[in-house]
Write a structure and sequence with these properties.
This protein is α/β, with parallel strands linked by helices and 171 residues long. Helices cover 37% and strands 23% of the residues. The chain is built from seven helices and nine strands, in the order H-E-E-H-E-E-E-H-E-H-E-H-E-E-H-H. It starts with a helix and ends with a helix.
Length: 171
């Protein structure tokens, strides 16, 4: 993640809300972040994909939150992804999880924040990608061509092997 994009990525990609009541129940949901996943599961909503790293705002989540996001009926896949990066293994695991008809949890060693971006590109039309907006609430991105184009633009301005990213995302 180049320094030039850090400020831009602080702006939410969709509306910010305070609870999960506005999340449709009839569409796939990709939850990125432990607290978002926790609130969904506490409301009886099982996200199609939950991407967690057992941290919130760079601090370890409370044991009750960690237990809640790990102790469920999802299959869990572990993947390494250092802070400030989007690795090919993370993207591949995310694409596989989105394609899986059963709920999947991606447990990230490192940082999961940027997983929002490939999730928007990989999720089907109408799906929701949810992530936390620090000290504000939860962002709900409705996946459509406009959201994908916005994210593709952001991804194209990141440093690294763009060809490999697109190859993994579009396999």
């Amino acid at each position: 993640l180049p320094a030039s994009l850090r400020r831009e990525l602080r702006d939410p990609l969709g509306p910010v809300q305070q609870d999960v009541s506005g999340v449709p129940t009839d569409v796939p949901v990709v939850a990125v972040g432990d607290i978002v996943t926790y609130h969904l599961t506490q409301a009886g909503r099982q996200p199609s994909v939950a991407v967690i790293d057992r941290r919130t705002q760079r601090e370890a989540v409370e044991p009750a939150v960690e237990a809640a996001v790990l102790d469920d009926d999802r299959r869990h896949v572990h993947v390494d992804n250092p802070a400030g990066t989007i690795t090919a293994p993370l993207v591949a695991a995310l694409v596989d999880a989105i394609d899986d008809p059963e709920p999947v949890g991606l447990v990230v060693e490192g940082e999961e924040d940027l997983a929002v971006l490939p999730a928007v590109v990989a999720a089907p039309d109408g799906a929701r990608v949810l992530y936390g907006q620090p000290d504000e609430g939860m962002v709900q991105v409705t996946v459509d061509d406009e959201a994908r184009e916005t994210v593709r633009d952001l991804l194209s301005r990141m440093e690294g092997d763009a060809e490999r990213l697109w190859a993994v995302l579009e396999r």
